[in-house]
Amino acid sequence: MKKLGIIGGLGPMATAYFMRRIIEMTDAATDQDNIEMVIYNSPSIPDRTGYILDNTKESPLPKIIDLANRLELQDVDYIAIPCITAHYFHQQIAKSVDVPVSNGIREAADYLSEHGIKKVGIMATDGTVSTRLFDSVFMDYGIQCVYPDGEYQKLVMSIIYDEVKAGKPVSMKEFELVKNQLLASGAEVVILGCTELSIAKRDNHIEGVLDIIDVLARDCVMKCAKLRPEYKELIKEGK
Predict the structure, then answer these.
(1) Which of 112, 132, 129, 128 is nearest to 120 (CA)?
(2) Which residues of the chain carry a pLDDT beneath 70?
(3) Do residues 121 and 179 lie in contact, with contact meaning Cβ atoms separated by under 8 Å?
(4) Residue 83 annotated to the active site
(5) pLDDT, tens digit, for every residue of 191-236?
(6) Using CA atoms, how far apart are residues 88 and 46, in angstroms rounded to an integer?
(7) Which pairing describes strands 3-8 and 36-41: parallel, antiparallel, or unpaired?
């Protein structure tokens, strides 16, 4: 059994849900069959989108690298960061340690490619959208990304920051407006490309989406333990 290190707190609710999904996906019959995890829940890490959109603000990278180094000293075999906007720094983080660091965006691309999906809608933070994090990887797989129009992107940011990060229920009416706009733009699947958006799927039945927390959790389980067969497929049918 391998040991998993998690750089969390970005945000805290997403980190808690990520741990839950890892446990749910692990094919474990006893406590001892589960993955040992070392988790740093560090909400003091500066906001990733804030820094990406305005480099005069404090960078989150030094704190993230510090935590990655601490996890390496604790002999973890794999490191995961349940924050997709933080994947903007993935190359620098991965170079700072000798331990492999999960790349949720590339894992999503692998999964979509295996399923023949060629066009996806992206719901994510302004930081992820502005840097085209998904496009930079998906283009290598021949997968096209479409994004919400301006006003719809504002709804996405409101769901992330004003609702999930603020501990409030997700407005599913607004969520469905954005999702339907992306599907109308030709997306075959909508990616919940921010781990805060995973909370909407946790609390509601949503079809036609690929949850990035599920992608990350599935990758971690496959790298560190054994995956339950029912989690081989991650997209619920329907739109």
Answers:
(1) 112
(2) 237-239
(3) yes
(4) yes
(5) 999 999 999 999 999 999 999 999 999 999 999 999 999 999 999 7
(6) 14
(7) parallel
**The amino acid at 52:** I
**CB burial of residue 230 (10 Å; 0-12, 13-18, 19+):** exposed
Catalytic member of 145, 194, 220, 224: 194
Query: Both tokens of residue 121?
Result: 């809608």
Q: Is the dihedral of CA 185, 162, 80, 19 positive or negative?
A: negative
Structure tokens at 228: 């339950």
Between CA 158 and CA 175 the distance in angstroms is 10
Please give the Cα distance from 60 to 10 (Å, whole number). Answer: 10
Clarify whether 194 is annotated catalytic.
Answer: yes
User: Which of 83, 145, 220, 224 does the annotation list as catalytic?
Assistant: 83
